Amino acid sequence: MLVMGVCTVYFLVPIWWLFVGSSKSRAQFTGTAPLWFADFDLAGNVRELLAYRDGVFLRWMVNSLAYTGGSALLGTLLAAMCGYALAKYRFPGRETLFNVVLGGVLVPATALALPLFLLFSRVEATNTFWSVFLPSLVNPFGVYLARIYAAASVPDELLEAARIDGSGEVRSFFTVSVRLMFPALVTIFLFHFVAVWNNFLLPLIMLGDERLFPVTLGLYSWNTQVNQLPELRGLVIVGALLSIAPLVVAFLFLQRFWRSGLGAGAVK
Amino acid sequence: MTGVVKRIGFGGHGRAIAFFVVPFGVLFTLFYLVPIGYAVVQSLYTVERTGTFGPAREVFGGLVQYRRVFSDVPFWESVLRVLAFGVVQVPVMLGLALLLALLLDSGLVRGRRFFRLAFFVPYAVPGVIAAIMWGFLYSPNLSPFTALTANVDLLSADLVLWAMANVVTWVYVGYNMLIIYSALLAIPAEVYEAARLDGAGHFRTAWSIKIPLVMPAIVLTTVFSIIGTLQLLAEPQVFRSFSSAVSSTYTPNLTVYSTSSVPNFQLAAAFSVVLALATFALSFTFLKFTQRRGER
């Protein structure tokens, strides 16, 4: 119990500090007790953040949502389809395909970022939304998980029955299999979401236009300017709080899925 | 007859299979295989200039870039640095994750839901944001732990690596704990029944039954951690604005990034190829090694 208590403090104090810090004015930030509130003015700080440089922060948040949410949704579907085919059909080259994809899991994303940048600059497509979005769609680990889940949760007999009922393979996938795989798909989605959300190097290399930044890159760029523009420090702190809040909330709601899904992936 | 056709062909579902596989396959080829191939090709070229300011042209240089990589002292120092980091940080992080998972699973703890969430929350914080946050927490004039930061400079050359190790640990313990915990939940109750009949206590059960049974999960988390360690980039990049001790070649990935922004793409490509191979080799060796042991 003591261990649990100490660890809770360790994990939660930084976030608590961020929350408290976000509620203070610039003068109070250094002058008052760091772990307790002074004049609570979170709303004022948020207003200041949203107004700064024509509301570029809000734009970053929307960008992040598009990059991560969009690529995770679409990427999960593509990975699920591929993993499903690997699990449910026998076809020539199946094992080769699976092994190549599995090798892809071990390739560090950062080793890909630089050649991707060079390739995109060949077709003059760097510094665009697509230069970050398209590469983020590919999720080899998702294929691996989808194959395991499909093998475990979609019985062949059911597909056979659907065939006898005259349902096409693609229709069976969307009406029957996707439903059976749903908890697994949520897990793949969350994994994918977090991976893109955490990917720092790709946007750092690809994007030059501030208005295309995801929120992580935006806050990073502000943080590097704190020495010249001290007022940015407060904004970075409020911004950090606002940027992690949606994901924390999502975790609270989706944790049931996480657990059941993670188990299946880890045990096999 | 149809059986034979099925065995060698697509079993009559060729079109459906193509529908399922091709979209991912195309993207995987475009954004994984082609870039890897391109990096390998790039790394074999070198830029020559006629005179100091003459036009640059790419010429085939064979393994020239690789010779540079292997004689680049700061790069190998950075490799040693992340290896030292990994050798300490990965076991600490996974040890803690395993301990917490076992405690959650032991039935000794009340409020499991709360703890599980509390430990997992940091995982929602992206590496960059976590590094910015902890950077402030370490800074002497801002930190809530002034008693500590006034006496120990956590951002000094000696300690900054471990200050970063703490950031990584903070973010990922809960995630790894959850993977191990899920594996623990999957252990069938009969196994425990048998252990209890044999008179095994909590520790004995944990040591002789639970840990061996969740070994696959631990292996998985270890491989991910190894890959993560070699990819270390966001944390050191952020810490550069907090500490002058973090150079532009502090980790291998920072080296790749700063070499490419010079720009020397050919050399940067050679760096990334070497790095990707090293990551691949390390994870693969670890997997093989643990599999062999598991087969005894």
Automatic annotation (TrEMBL), chain B:
Q: ABC transmembrane type-1 domain spans which residues? A: 79-286
Q: Which GO terms describe its cellular component?
A: plasma membrane
Keywords per UniProt: Cell membrane, Membrane, Sugar transport, Transmembrane, Transmembrane helix, Transport
Extract the Pfam families matched here. Answer: BPD_transp_1
Q: Which GO terms describe its biological process?
A: transmembrane transport
Q: What is its main location?
A: membrane
Q: Which InterPro entries match?
A: MetI-like, MetI-like_sf, UgpAE/MalFG_permease
Q: Which residues cross the membrane?
A: 16-41, 82-105, 117-139, 159-187, 213-234, 265-287
Q: Which membrane topology describes this protein?
A: Multi-pass membrane protein
Where does the protein end up? Answer: Cell membrane
Family note = Belongs to the binding-protein-dependent transport system permease family.
The record's annotation in PANTHER family points to: BLL4140 PROTEIN, DIACETYLCHITOBIOSE UPTAKE SYSTEM PERMEASE PROTEIN DASB
The protein depicted here goes by the name Multiple sugar transport system permease protein
Specify the species.
Actinoplanes digitatis
Organism classification: Bacteria, Bacillati, Actinomycetota, Actinomycetes, Micromonosporales
